[in-house]
Specification:
By secondary structure, the protein is mainly β. It is built from two helices and 16 strands. The strands form two sheets. It has a 14-stranded antiparallel beta sheet. Strands 1-2 form a two-stranded antiparallel sheet. Strand 12 and strand 13 form a beta hairpin. The chain starts with a helix and ends with a strand.
Length: 200
C-alpha cells in the first residue's frame, strides 16, 4: 500500500488530488550531411477545459568551414478551443538573443517579431487555427500555416499524400508525415540543408 501511495504522489497534484496530464512528446535528431548537429523536441499537452499547449525546443550547433551556427530556441503556443491565444518564442544564438510574441485580445492578434534580420510589428484580425508547433501533431488541412518564429504565415503545398511544403519567400521546408505525426523535415538553406528526423 505504501508503494502505491508513493507512486501516485509522483504524478498527482497534492492540493487537488488529481493527476497531472502527461504531454505527448516527439524527439528528433537534426542532421547536416548525415552528421548530427542538434536535437528538437515537440510536445502537446492537453490541459482540459479546451486548453492545449504546444512546445518546440531546438538546440543546434554547426561548425563547417565558413559556416558557423549556434542556435537555441523555444516556442510555446497556447490554444483555447483550437484557436491560438498566445505564442512566445525565445531565441539565443551566436548572432544574439531575440524574441517573438503573439497575443490575442478581443479577436485581434498583436504580433511582435524581433528575430535576426527580421523585424515585424503588426495586427492580425483573422483567427489563427493552425501553426507550426501544432503542425507536428496534425497534418495540414488548409493552405497556410502560421509560423510562430517569424510571426507570419507560410503557404502550404501538398506534394503527395504524406508530403507537404511550407514556404515563405526564400524559406522552403518539406514536411513528411506518418499519420498525423511529423516523421521528418528537410529545411532548405541557402548554404546547407538541415534534416530533422524523428527518433521516438
Amino acid at each position: 500500500m505504501k508503494v502505491i501511495i508513493a507512486i501516485l504522489s509522483l504524478c498527482c497534484i497534492p492540493s487537488f488530488g488529481r493527476c497531472q496530464p502527461s504531454p505527448d512528446t516527439l524527439n528528433y535528431m537534426i542532421e547536416v550531411a548525415s552528421f548530427k548537429v542538434g536535437t528538437m523536441m515537440a510536445t502537446r499537452l492537453h490541459l482540459g477545459n479546451g486548453k492545449t499547449k504546444y512546445t518546440l525546443i531546438s538546440n543546434v550547433k554547426v561548425n563547417l568551414l565558413l559556416y558557423h551556427l549556434k542556435l537555441f530556441y523555444k516556442v510555446e503556443s497556447n490554444y483555447m478551443n483550437n484557436k491560438l491565444i498566445t505564442a512566445f518564442v525565445n531565441t539565443k544564438s551566436n548572432k544574439g538573443n531575440f524574441y517573438t510574441q503573439v497575443i490575442e485580445v478581443n479577436g485581434r492578434y498583436f504580433i511582435k517579431a524581433h528575430q535576426y534580420s527580421h523585424h515585424l510589428e503588426t495586427i492580425e484580425t483573422d483567427p489563427i487555427l493552425y501553426s507550426v508547433a501544432k503542425a507536428f501533431f496534425e497534418r495540414p488541412r488548409q493552405g497556410k500555416v502560421f509560423g510562430e518564429y517569424l510571426g507570419d504565415y507560410l503557404l502550404v503545398d501538398k506534394v503527395s499524400e504524406d508530403v507537404y511544403i511550407f514556404k515563405r519567400k526564400d524559406q522552403v521546408d518539406e514536411y513528411t508525415y506518418s499519420h498525423d505525426i511529423v516523421k521528418s523535415i528537410v529545411k532548405k538553406n541557402r548554404f546547407i540543408d538541415f534534416k530533422v528526423r524523428l527518433i521516438k
